[in-house]
Specification:
By secondary structure, this protein is α/β, with parallel strands linked by helices. The chain has 16 helices and 13 strands. It folds into three domains: 119 residues, GTPase HflX, N-terminal domain (Rossmann fold, 3-Layer(aba) Sandwich), CATH 3.40.50.11060; 174 residues, Rossmann fold (3-Layer(aba) Sandwich), CATH 3.40.50.300; 50 residues, no CATH class. A six-stranded mixed β-sheet has the order 6-7-5-8-9-10, with helices on both faces. Helix 6 packs antiparallel against helix 8. The structure holds guanosine-5'-triphosphate (GTP) and magnesium ion. The site of guanosine-5'-triphosphate has 22 residues, from helix 9 and helix 13.
Length: 436
């Protein structure tokens, strides 16, 4: 459920006991174990304590109750024994399955989408992220309103008489209208925010910095890599280089897009964006809601696909990341595959990166492989760049700073006639310098 500030505080005080209900439709043990483990981690990220895991193997989910009515009865005993307050399901349930299962077991049922929405609603910090999550949550709620007002009938003592049923239905209709109205409002407000972002983005393009985007599975170490690069950055180049981003061993630590300027001595400055992590079967409404946040990725010059190379499932994570990128329609952007956490994978760090490869092993924690990564980045950004060698009069300060911003300065000396500069510049800048 979407939780407001007040409830959020109450929940954070204590862990809530839950039972995981895992429907197994796959033969593959490893795939299933990975999914169950991930569900447990998602619960943890939401302050829910797993008391018991119930598994049901079926070729297809049961239309009425998702796990079948026999298993649902069995679940009620487990719930009684564990005092679980929620049943968290591995999978997504239809509104009917959710309603029926809830009726049998007598406690609220959360499916995976619900759980992810809950985490997102707690983590969202910026106005945009909050509105996006609210919009995704309302879309999720709309078809699930039926049955929510049953208690109205019961409270007025009618026990299902026609008149009392009417109260609930009227309330649902009212809610539905209110929710639809709110969705329209949110859409408008988000559109406005998106326009502002677009203006900021264009401003950045005018500044000429290349944009590098960090993408990858949640918890791979994207924010840690960003912080490591911020640390190596020269703070005098930019005020916001000190602003580190939030990193934590937790699924979906990052929800908001942050962009920082990275200016490492001897290298061409670039903008780096950190974005929300991906996960398998990410709820569709959520992808839709976060599309504008992820638009940053669309405008990137290079994508750094970050993976936790110490996780046995990193190839699966890479596939999921690539599938999500395909959905975002960013197939033409050059990529570097960044195998992070090399310090766990190989404690001695004997892995060597080969020059020219698009797969780089690094450790955001120890700093291992950072130069190799920056070299790989330089190589991609230099494609199409040209060497410019000229003397600029001292009055041309703005052109000089443009070369510093957009190009990579190889040599700079101060002569009586002006600044002698040798730099690798992107084609557009080199063309412009040719005309002055
Ligand atoms: N040992 C080790 N741990 C790392 C490394 N990089 C990141 N971590 C840890 O991995 C956890 C997740 O790191 P984050 O940087 O928050 O991961 P993220 O990809 O930004 O995750 P989301 O924002 O949730 O998508 C944190 O506990 C980090 O300290 C590394 O190179 N080595
Ligand atoms: Mg992060």
């Amino acid at each position: 459920m979407y939780i407001d500030k007040e409830t959020d505080n109450q929940i954070q005080d204590a862990l809530i006991p839950v039972v995981l209900v895992c429907l197994r439709t796959t033969e593959d043990d490893e795939e299933f174990d990975h999914a169950v483990n991930e569900l447990k981690n998602l619960c943890e990220a939401c302050d829910l304590e797993t008391k018991e895991i119930i598994t049901q193997s079926l070729p297809h989910p049961d239309n009425a109750t998702w796990i079948g009515s026999g298993k649902a009865e069995e679940l009620t005993y487990v719930i009684r024994g564990t005092e679980a307050e929620y049943a968290v399901c591995l999978g997504n349930l239809s509104p009917t399955q959710m309603k029926n299962l809830q009726k049998i077991i007598g406690i609220p049922v959360w499916d995976r989408t619900n759980l992810i929405l809950e985490i997102f609603s707690r983590r969202a910090r910026t106005r945009e992220a909050r509105l996006q999550v609210e919009s995704a949550y309302l879309h999720y709620m709309l078809p699930r309103l039926t049955g929510m007002w049953k208690h109205l009938g019961r409270q007025s003592g009618g026990g299902g008489s026609r008149a009392n049923k009417g109260i609930g239905e009227k309330q649902i209709e009212l809610d539905r209208r209110q929710i639809s109205h709110r969705i329209t409002e949110l859409k408008k407000e988000l559109k406005q925010i998106e326009l502002t972002r677009e203006v900021q983005r264009r401003g950045r393009i005018r500044n000429g910095y290349p944009l590098v985007a960090l993408v990858g599975y949640t918890n791979a170490g994207k924010s840690s890599l960003m912080n490591r690069l911020i640390e190596s950055s020269v703070s005098s180049y930019t005020e916001d280089s000190e602003k580190k981003v939030f990193e934590k061993d937790m699924l979906f630590a990052t929800l908001d897009t942050s962009v920082r300027k990275i200016a490492i001595p001897g290298r061409r400055p670039f903008l780096l964006s950190d974005t929300v992590g991906f996960i398998e079967n990410i709820p569709h409404d959520l992808i839709k809601a976060f599309r504008s946040t992820l638009a940053e990725v669309k405008y990137a010059d290079v994508l750094l696909i970050v993976m936790d190379s110490s996780d046995p499932h990193y190839t699966m994570h890479r596939r999921i990341t690539e599938d999500t990128l395909r959905e975002l329609d960013v197939s033409g952007i050059p990529r570097i595959y960044v195998y992070n956490k090399a310090d766990i994978r190989d404690k001695e760090l004997t892995i060597k990166n080969s020059a020219g490869s698009d797969s780089i092993f690094i450790s955001a924690r120890t700093g291992y492989g950072m130069d190799d990564l920056l070299d790989a980045l330089r190589e991609i950004l230099q494609r199409g760049s040209r060497l410019v060698d000229l003397i600029l009069p001292y009055s041309a300060g703005s052109i000089l700073s443009r070369i510093h911003n957009e190009g990579e300065v190889l040599e700079e000396s101060f002569e009586p006639e002006g600044t002698h500069i040798r730099a690798l510049c992107p084609a557009a800048l080199a063309d412009y310098l040719g005309t002055i």
